[in-house]
Protein 1
Amino acid sequence: MIARRMRLIDSSGIRKVFDLARSMKNPINLSIGQPDFDVPENVKRAAIENIMAGRNRYTVTQGIPELHEGVREHLKRTRGVDAQNILITSGVSGGLVLAFLVLVDEGDEVAIPDPYFVMYKHLTNLVGGRPRFIDTYPDFRLRKEALRAAITSRTKVLVLNSPCNPTGITYTREELEGVAEVAREHDLLVLSDEIYDCFCYLDNCPSMASIYPKTLLMGGFSKSHAMTGWRLGYATGPADVIAEMTKLQQYSFVCAPSFAQYAGVTALEYPLDGACEAYRAKRDLIYNGLKDNFDVQKPEGAFYIFPKAPWGTDQEFVAEAIKNNVLIIPGSVFSERATHFRISYAAPDNTIKQGIDVLNRLASHRR
């Protein structure tokens, strides 16, 4: 009865931990990838006002013009990107589904730096593509030599995520220029997932779309404005790709939630510097708390850190952490290796400190 393609998709390891969290009493929860602050008050008011004004019907599939203009100005101001073709999507996840269906034929290879966000592998399999993983351990940097060695005649798309979930690594302009060099050599389309663009702790956080024209940029409001349940994102890139994604959205998501689109216009006017600085401080707290007992890279963006398990496999160490009431995610959810684990520091400082204490104790337990 069930289609064979579903055998290629595992139940999300992240969701399994979320389900476990509901059954535990007051866990030290460092697993959830969503901000610990609420949607800004003026954005909530804008949503309510638009609901009460009757803006609850379908919008045009591509999204309302006001939000198109807001996204265009936002990308030009913050990313140096001149976005001519825009589609408003049902979150970045919805945009990814559309993009993979539009871009990847059966047998096409999708180049994916490892570690990676969980959807990339499973969507590639779902549409009949073949994931082509590029090992970036131990420092999680994507080097053009490694990328070039991974490309074959069947490689069609390269997926980038910067700042990255799960590692927090953010690519420099020099690194992206090296990637663009290889992409040009092989005429690759680059799908650049930039959902964490507002959480960048470097002096400069460049967009691949400002360097390489054949880039499909994905962004959204879930992380920057804590609008995870509102399902609002956007895509911009080559005109033919956006046109096909728009066509497919007509027969799938139809449109992004109408009230969220109108509130998104207000959200784009909300300053985010305070949130970025608050999460930079959380980054420093978790990194400084773990670096003496764990092999760990300092995150440069997003709100994740990806330490190496000090003993055992990722699953074994995470199981022991959960026994001690700390919820973290095994690294093999995000990787072809089973050596690391992901921490989300999108949590209150006291929760982070409690987690640091338990994890350091576990790290020394088997030495």
Note: The chain has a mean pLDDT of 95.
Protein 2
Amino acid sequence: MLLPTSTLFESGPLDLERGGRLERLAVAYESWGRLDADGGNAILIAHGYTSNPHAAGPGGWWEPLIGPGRAIDTDRWFVVCSNMIGSAYGSSGPVRGQPFPDIETGDMVAAQHRLLEHLGVGQLAAVVGFSYGGHLTFEWGSRHPERMRALVPVATGIASRMGEERALALEARFAGLDDPTGELERLRFETLERYGDLDWFSDRLGSREAGRRKVEALARKWAREFTPESLIVLARAAARFDARPRADAIRAPLLYVLSRSDVLFTPALAEPTLALLGPSASYFEIDSPYGHRAPSHDWAKWATPLAEFLATHAG
């Protein structure tokens, strides 16, 4: 589904890394701010596994971080967030009952690259990606090292932690279901609970029961929008992702951001990742109890380091 806040870019065929082809490429995206005449002030935002391109503005998943005077300042930067191909929010992706080719994270970057060319973007000021979008951030840095001035992978890893077994488990979970909505809702609730949303809403609303009701409502909404086919296509691509063999190609200064309580991408990843990246990489740990969702829920705890890093390296 195309969000009402999104715009659709369409172009010709895209050849895929695993030998398939998208005969028509569609990329849903949203943008904020104004592109400079030289095309050099753009920041690309890459979203998470089951998220969408509505990163800023009312209801945006990073609304407190993106906007006039905020850490990603739209008075200064032209900010673009595109829906990754394979997803369910308007970009080329699987349709129930129709075949869709296997894709890789490199294909997602290729689609983003084509969109940026269409928009007139020159060298990117930065690529900033959350979770699955952080994988794309490492892909950008290692495949197109001269294309950006800064990189910010957030709550993510330089290699997948999903594994092929997760993709296979998803396929088994949805196999044979005529109406997957209820199972999608259960999966989403489990995910939001594991990621820290249930704790955050419970604290904010004053009780565990109120937090549970809020997360259940979010899970119901998402289950009406997403599809198991997209979950599986994206999981397969994530399971194969590993940018470690190309890490020495990364040239741009990089700020690696993790949450101390994240059980998906734990702080233990920081030391080996920085060792791969060398002296141009730095690390910031968000001191938050809200797990994988800390970059959104505790945004104020890392907004200043993010703004300072962009001011120093992306300008």
Note: Residues 7-159+241-313 form a domain with the Rossmann fold fold (CATH 3.40.50.1820).
